[in-house]
Design brief:
By secondary structure, the protein is α/β, with parallel strands linked by helices. The chain has 15 helices and eleven strands. It is about 50% helix and about 15% strand.
Length: about 425
């Protein structure tokens, strides 16, 4: 229930202004005729859209304590994506429904209502906010620009939001006639503005970042790098299986912050991350040098060994998805009784770069069993195969980390095998 609080809260926060709005005027005064109903629905979509837009900015602020209410940071970003789309839809229907009554009178009047120019700054700000938001979200959803371009464009959502707040503040409507409704909407607007300031301006001062130095770099194969980071002062505290955002400083590598799973255990002095070269950023890792600084923000994620999980567990790693399991395996102790079966899935054995290290951990821990699964020899792994090899999946927690399609497919397969959703855990970087 705790992990559903976030979604339930979003629904309640969006519903509250509608309840206030409904109590202002009798229903017959809101929906007494088709034209009046369209106007009322236009007001409702505007109120909901504004609250969702504000909540969308709150979710984008990367606030760590919210993770426990949304099933982790990745889930928060998924809901951020959903709220962005929903707020655009509601805010798009807001003027469309309001303009309906003017269309019945004259198309010219309707156009002047939507584009009043400097004579009506409140409406002009609303139109500017809507068009800017449409432009930015269409780019995000459909054109998928490169990360650095997307990040720059995303900042302009804050400008669209400020235009929208100006519209709410200046417009003569129910939000100006009912102080409770006005303070509620503007209160959420203020929260959204604070989150913009927090993430874009004050994060350097308010978000704790740990300074590390690159102490060693290993190229494990043509596309995978193992990087060791030595703390300069205070050491990051984390749980095995979590991830961090890292921004490298110095040299020629881009200083953007990107998420990486931690491969070291919490007891190790140095922080270890493993990076696979996939995009423009990671493709430049050959420019990283020993001695470069690294700023680390975190830790994040609920893909961890916690007391509420079953002592019987199945871990499934696909390729580079072995990284969090490596951290978790290093953290196992024989004092805490667990029965863990780790399926290390690769195309061929040469890709299992951490297999020997994991086998050494297996020798020291009686509760850990390692299975190397090569798809070129045995085909793709499936829930049915795992069920047969593990002697059943009943009462076991399933941990999956790997390529998105692999995780999606395996989760669906385990659900068909009657494994409860709450017993299936995955780590996905769909930011």
């Amino acid at each position: 229930m705790k992990r559903n609080v976030g979604i339930i809260s979003i629904c309640l926060f969006a519903l509250i202004p509608i309840l206030i709005w409904l109590n202002m005027v009798p229903l017959v005064g809101r929906f007494g005729g088709f034209s009046l109903s369209m106007t009322s629905l236009g007001q409702v979509t505007g109120l909901i859209g504004m609250v969702l837009f504000s909540l969308d900015l709150v979710l984008s602020a990367r606030i760590r304590w919210l993770e426990q209410y949304f099933w982790g940071l990745n889930s928060i970003y998924i809901w951020h994506h959903i709220l962005g789309g929903l707020s655009l839809i509601f805010l798009l229907f807001h003027p469309i429904l309001l303009v309906y009554r003017y269309v019945l009178l004259s198309l010219d009047i309707a156009v002047k209502f939507l584009f009043p120019g400097p004579t009506n700054p409140a409406v002009a700000l609303g139109v500017a906010a809507l068009f800017l938001m449409m432009f930015l979200l269409v780019l995000t959803f459909y054109f998928r620009p490169k990360y650095n371009i997307w990040k720059s464009l995303h900042r302009f959502l804050g400008l669209a939001f400020l235009f929208a707040v100006g519209h709410v503040f200046l417009i003569t409507s129910d939000t100006s006639r009912n102080l409770f409704l006005r303070y509620y909407i503007l209160g959420w607007a203020a929260m959204g503005i604070l989150c913009i300031i927090y993430r874009s301006i004050l994060h350097k001062y308010l978000v704790e970042r740990f300074t590390y130095t690159v102490s060693e770099i290993k190229k494990l194969d043509q596309s995978i790098w193992q990087i060791f980071l030595q703390p300069q002062s205070k050491k990051l505290s984390f749980q095995a299986g979590q991830f961090v955002f890292v921004g490298f400083r110095g040299g020629e590598i881009n200083g953007e912050f990107h998420p990486f799973s931690i491969a070291s255990s919490p007891l190790e002095e140095n922080l270890q991350i493993v990076i696979k070269s996939l995009g423009d950023y990671t493709a430049n890792l050959d420019k990283l040098k020993v001695g470069d600084r690294a700023l680390v923000e975190g830790s994040f994620g609920i893909f961890t060994l916690t007391k509420d999980h079953s002592p019987k567990q199945i871990w499934i790693a696909g390729g580079i998805g072995i990284t969090p399991f490596l951290s978790m395996a290093k953290s196992l102790t024989n004092e805490i009784k667990r029965e863990i079966e780790l399926y290390y899935c690769v195309n061929e054995k040469t890709e299992a770069i951490f297999y020997e290290e994991l086998k050494k951990i297996e020798e020291k821990n009686v509760g850990l069993k390692i299975f190397l699964f090569c798809s070129k020899e045995k085909g793709r792994i499936s829930a049915a195969i795992i069920k047969e090899m593990s002697g059943g999946v009943e009462g076991k927690d399933i941990f999956v980390c790997g390529p998105p399609m692999m995780m999606k497919s395996l989760k669906q397969q385990f659900i068909k095998l009657n494994v409860p959703k709450k017993h299936i855990h995955s780590e996905e970087f769909g930011f």
